[in-house]
Structures are given as C-alpha cells and as structure tokens.
Amino acid sequence: MAATDLAATRRQLLQSGQAGKLDAPGLRQVLVDLHEFWLTSKGAELGVRPQSGYAIVAVGGLGRGELLPFSDLDLILLHDGMPHDEVAEVADGLWYPLWDANIALDHSVRTVPQALQVAAEDVSAAMGLLEARHIAGDEDLSNLLISGVRQQWRTEIRDRFPAVVSHAQDRWRRAGDIAHRAEPDLKNGRGGLRDVQLLGALAMAQLTDGMASLRPDSPGAGPQVAYARLLDIRTELHRIAGRPREQVRAQDADEIGAALRIGDRFDLARVISDAARTISYSIDVGLRTAGNALPRRGLAKLRRSPIRRPLDEGVVEHNGEIVLARNAIPSKDPGLILRVASASARTGLPISASTLSRLADYAPELREPWPAEALSDLLVLLGAGHHMVDPIEALDRTGLWGRLLPEWGAVRDLPPRDAIHTWTVDRHLVETAAHAGSMTTRVSRPDLLVLGALLHDIGKGRGADHSIVGADLAIQIGNRFGLWPQDVTVLSEMVRHHLLLPSIATRRDLDDPATAEFVAETLGYNRALLELLSALAEADSLATGPGVWGEWKASLINDLVRRAFRLIDGDELARPDALTSEQLALAEAGGFSVDIEQADGPHTFRITMVAPDATGLLSKMAGVLSLNGLRSHSATVQSHAGSAVNTFVVVPLFGSPPEAGLIRQQLMAAVDGKIDVLARLDARETESPIPTIGSVSAPGAATSAGSTDPAVDGAGHPKNAVPALFAVAPPRVLWVHHDAEATGPDPGPDPGEVILELRTDDRLGLLSRVSSVIERHGAQVRWAKVTTLGSTVVDTFCLHLADDGEAARTALADDVLAVCPPPQPRSDDDGNGPDAYGGTARSGVPIS
C-alpha cells in the first residue's frame, strides 16, 4: 500500500466515524491496525525484517495503541550499528512517503545506546520511550531498547524524581486545571491524559501501583475509567475539528456531547470535570506515594522509621500523612471519617490513600441526628479556610463525602450556567465555605456561617428555583446534622435569602427607607440572620470569580445592612444556666471537688470543678484541663456560697480523661503555686507533636527550586503555607453596650458590670490564658459562658472592672488579643465586613 493510499484510507475512516459506523475506541483501533500494516509492509520492502539489525519502534499514541485521527506518528528507526549510507537509505524510504502523503511525523534514527543516552538526559524523552512498542523488523533489537529504558528508569528514578515532578508542574502551569477551565486542555492540563501516563511511568519505576485506591462506586471510579472518557472526548474533538486540537472549545462541545451520547455542552463539561478531578486526586496520591517509596542512600538508610504522632481519637500522623491509629476500628466508629478530615484540615497533611480506602470499606454511616462530636468535627473542617479543600476533595473522590451529604450528588461537577463563575457548583460551595472561614469572628454564630456557605447553592441542578429547593434541603440536612430547631430555621433562611442583600443593594434605592424596612421585614427582624447573610454575600462573591466582589458592591451591601440594623432590636445576652441542686450542695460544702461524667458522645465528657473562689482560679482550672490533653468545647463559670462552680465540656486528644482524683490534686497544687500552669502550657505548645503545615515533605524530596513535594496546587504552587492551628480569621474583642433602662427577661449585666465578648480561633490553653489576662488587670469574672463552634471560640465574660474607663478597656482588649492565635494573612480581609457598618452580635463596639 502506498502512503497516498494510507492517507486516503484514513480520510475514509474519519468519514465512517462521522456517519456513526465507528465509535471512538473502534476508530482508534482501526487507525492503529492500519498504520501498523503499512509500516510492516513498507519496512519489509526496505529490508526491515526479523534478524535484519533494523527495527521500527513506535512511541506516543501508536506506541500506546490509541492512535487518534490527527495524532502525529512518533517513530524510531532502530539499527544495530549499521553503515551510515545504508541507514540513511532505509530512513529516507520510510519517512519520505509519509511526508509526501502529508501525514504528520515525528521521527528519529538511533542505535540502542544512543536512544538510552537521550532517555538519560531528557525526562520527557524518557517517559515517551517507556511507552515504546515494537512494530516491525528485529524484535530482539526493540526488546533490548524497551527493557534497557525501563531498567535505566528504575535505577535512576531517585535522582530523577525531582525533575519528573518539576516537569509535571511546568505543564500544569502552562495548561491549567482541566476541571475548572472553560476550554480545557485534555492532554496537558492537570487531571488530563498526560497525568495518567505519568502514573504509569511511576508504576514502571516500582514506586506506585499506578492506581489510586478508589472504590468502583466512587465518582470517576478510577483513573483508567476517567482516562478512557477523556480519550474518547479527545478522539471526537479531533474528528469534529479536523485537526489535532487538544482544547475543547465551546462551539464544538454540543457536537462532541451528541456524538458520544453524553448530552449537551453542560453535560459534557460535567463528565470532563468528574474525570479530571478523579485523575487529579490519583496523581496527588501517586506523587506522594512515590516520594515516600524512594529508595534511601547513605546515612539515610540508618534513619529511624517515622514516629506515629497522635492527632485525635483514632487518628495519627505518620510519614507526612494522616492515617488511622493501630487500635482504630472504623466499623465501630462512624465519626472517624470526620475526625480524619478535620485533622487533615487542621494540620495541612494529606489523608493516606489506604486510610481513605479502609474508611470507605468499613466505616458505617452516621446515625441521624448526628452526635454532637461529629457536628463539631465537621465545623472544624469547614472552619479551616482553604485548608479544607483538599480533605473534602479526597473524601469526595472516594465516595465518603457523598455518604455524609447524599444531596451533594446533584451539584457534583455541575458546570455553571454563566461565564462569571470560575468553579463548578460543588467546588464553588467549598470555596465559599473556605472564604467564610476567614470571617468567623465577624459573626456571633460562626457555625451557621460556614454551614450556610457550604449549602447556599445546594438546590441547583434540580430544575427549580435553587434558593427555594435549597431551603427545603437545608432543613433536611440541618436536622440530620443534629442542629437545634431554631438553628435549622436560621440555616434554611440563609439558603433561601442568600441572594437578597446583593440583589436589593445593587437594584434598589438605598436612601428610600422602605428598602431597609423590606430587608428587615423579609428576615423577620432577625439580627443574627442579617449578620450571617452579610458575611455570606461577601464569601459567595469572592468564591464566584475575580472582580465579583469589589469596593462598589461592598459599600452598597454594607450601607444596606447598616440601615437594616437600625430597625432591628438587639439580641438577648448569653447567660449561663442556673446551678443544679447537686452543684449548689457541692458549693455549700466548700473545699475542692472534681466530678467527671459522660456527655453527649463517646469521646465527650463533662467535668464539674468546685473550689474556694479566689483570683486566678479560672485560669488554673482551665490550664489543668489543657495540660491533661482535654480540649474545652464549652464552659460555664459561676459561683455560689464563696465557691467557684465551673463546668467544662471537654474532648480528650485521645483516650479517656484522667481520674477525677488526679485532676483534683493538680488543681490544688496549681492553687498552692506548686504548678505554674501558664509556663507549662507554653512549654507544651512549643513541644506540641502536631506537625506544622508546610513543614512535611516526602522523603527524598527536593528542598529548593524544583521541589518534589507533591502538595502543590494545579499551578505547581505549595498548598500548605501556614503553621498548623493558626487562625484563619482575625481575633476580635467586643464590648457589649448595656442600656441601663432596659427591661424584660434579660436586662443585661448588673450596674457596675460589663460584658466582654471574644471571638477567635482556638489554641492550646486559650481559656486559661485569657482568664489570666483578665485577672491580671484586676477584673473580677462574675460569670462566663464559653463556646467552641468548630475551631472558632465565642467567649462571653461578665466582668466587674476596677477601672471602667476607655483606656482601661482598650488595654484589657489589647492584652486579650495578644494571647489569641494570630490570623492567617489574607488579601481580602480589608475591613469590609460587619464591623465596617457597625453591626455586631449584640450592638457591640469592636475594639480590634
């Protein structure tokens, strides 16, 4: 067959494909068979036969056996040191007919040593030769090259791994992330065909098995299934475009979707996103696994195995990954999934693929309503800012996120209907929650803020008004989460009205009093709901795309909210519940006592501590609990008959709390001055076993330019850049105004008393440190109500100040903020939040 006949047959095959006679896989196979036949026949004509010292070897698409309609032919004419003139004659006889027939050709002529030398010097060439396949001629010669390249690859991978990762990162920077591009590059983008081929190269180096641990029922099912989907789409793209195009253009999408029986361009975009995210997850796991599997040399061989560091009940860090503790039993611990995810978000460490697989296989579904511990772990995850994105993506790719939120399936990979949106709907929800995580100290209910951000568009993809559908779904989800009925109502109203403020602020006359009155009336004159919607409007805009949130839009919404706040009365103050008869009896008995009982969940305990009231007692009580690894979820501070009666709801870092008698002895020692609680807290925090975000890299990874740390984003930038347990939102101190003439069930603090509210991210011993500051300023704590909502603390202290002047308040607030964890720097934190228009939880005046 002449080369011109080859070209004519190719055109006929493409026409058959367009007529529906050949599907995409069939077309690729026929093209492979056709070109192999021509090359074999032409090679035999030129003397390229068995034992001839010549061989034709294919790489690229023909080498993989998946030749696309307009792919180049990537061929190597291999020879065993033949004379130059003879080799040139054979090469010309092979190449020129293809050029004359206008068949794209990428060719080279090599001996085996020459080809191995090229593979040793060029990463891209090496990975191409790993896919080499014998086509015609001397098969022993081809096998010598193929086996030699693979052996060389395995031998040198330790030194070449940094270059392999750098090569991939450069490609991602140029081509972008397929899942979130309007016109994705199916071949070179992150999550594309090249990434699966990279997984294959790592598998040949015996660093991975080439497959991520994904269940058959997981979204995308696995990288090979996702690869086949993208390959079919790329095949149709070539056929429809009539050229070797790699980017799916909007004008071709409907035709491609129809040819593959996928649907319209939106359905096609959803399939592409799903496949790309599956491959992206797989390449993250593959690079991380490969980095950990690199062989050690020299003194590194003598290094001790990585230590398993406890992070939470049943959760440890090992070798830079989140794994399960040896005694963890997933089948008996439904909350383990969320503890693993929250630990990953807090520390910035990735979740081990084997851990995800084990959880997917054995972890049971949470009973409804969820226990308080599970909801708390979810809030910690959502409150971690952008560090939550990777854990949620890992859960989603392995089917675990859908198990927690079955409603997620309707929005997963759902493409936006307008060009202003950067992300798919599900990723937009996650991004909105991530932005909301930087605003948690602006609102009195940070838990509802991040939940509302996660769910505000959950009603999309269901063929009706997404705000109304989403509001109904929010009730269903809120009840499943175990929220209080009144909180479920607020969450539903957030979803229903999440577009209210942007719509009214940009379309109505704000100087018209009826505008603000309409907003207040629509929201039922609910101050907390208005505050939440204001923060949600900003988070939603920031997560939509660049330029959606700006000074103009912020000023309009802030002005509208300020006007609406004036029409709404303040909320009631948070006060502790009355003491029980048992607590009153303990207080009247005097002395020291500690009582520990099981609380709402298997890992939650309620500790009641009674001691003679004295200055500094609260700081010492809270410090003793922190020193025993007990994290306070809430606390109530009161007194009676000269005794302090303080109740703490705590969760141990792992295991069970110490015996009550031991805590009592430690408390007495702290009161007697035998234990310096604050000094020990400082030392414990300095020596904390929890790793810092950005401090963990794979063994053998590079530490300079071209780092091989697989924890990079789609553009190759590090994902983990801030220390663990650092706040996402800036801490705030608010002084709550008290109207001396107020009446009703909660008139406010007594004369001479003030209310201080602290909103901040949590840290080790925070309550002890804050209490110590208050006591150092000579203020008396009349009562306190402490609540930890996820990773955000909302502490309310009723104080009697020795000096209640403005300077004294400012000094106290400054010192309180000094012991709070510093915020993560954020460019969008420009003050355009509730504080900008004077809104706070209870008419508070922000000091900082």
TrEMBL record:
Locations of Low complexity compositional bias? 694-707
Q: Which reaction does it catalyse?
A: [protein-PII]-L-tyrosine + UTP = [protein-PII]-uridylyl-L-tyrosine + diphosphate; [protein-PII]-uridylyl-L-tyrosine + H2O = [protein-PII]-L-tyrosine + UMP + H(+)
Q: Which GO molecular-function terms appear in the entry?
A: [protein-PII] uridylyltransferase activity; phosphoric diester hydrolase activity
Output the InterPro entries linked to this UniProt entry: ACT-like_dom_sf, ACT_dom, HD/PDEase_dom, HD_domain, NT_sf, PII_UdlTrfase/GS_AdlTrfase, UTase/UR
Q: Which GO terms describe its biological process?
A: regulation of nitrogen utilization
- Residue spans crossing the bilayer: none
Region entry Disordered, spans: 689-716, 821-848
List its EC numbers.
2.7.7.59, 3.1.4.-
Alphabetic keyword roster: Hydrolase, Magnesium, Multifunctional enzyme, Nucleotidyltransferase, Repeat, Transferase
Any matching Pfam family:
GlnD_UR_UTase
Cofactor(s) needed for function:
Mg(2+)
User: Where in this chain does the record put each ACT domain?
Assistant: 606-682, 755-827
List each copy of the HD domain by range: 425-526
According to the UniProt record, where is the region Uridylyltransferase? Answer: 1-310
Reported regulation of activity: Uridylyltransferase (UTase) activity is inhibited by glutamine, while glutamine activates uridylyl-removing (UR) activity.
Per the record, the domain of life is Bacteria
Q: Which family does it belong to?
A: Belongs to the GlnD family.
Q: What's its job?
A: Modifies, by uridylylation and deuridylylation, the PII regulatory proteins (GlnB and homologs), in response to the nitrogen status of the cell that GlnD senses through the glutamine level. Under low glutamine levels, catalyzes the conversion of the PII proteins and UTP to PII-UMP and PPi, while under higher glutamine levels, GlnD hydrolyzes PII-UMP to PII and UMP (deuridylylation). Thus, controls uridylylation state and activity of the PII proteins, and plays an important role in the regulation of nitrogen metabolism.
Q: According to its record, what is known about the domains?
A: Has four distinct domains: an N-terminal nucleotidyltransferase (NT) domain responsible for UTase activity, a central HD domain that encodes UR activity, and two C-terminal ACT domains that seem to have a role in glutamine sensing.
The protein, known as: Bifunctional uridylyltransferase/uridylyl-removing enzyme
* Taxonomy of the source species: Bacteria, Bacillati, Actinomycetota, Actinomycetes, Mycobacteriales
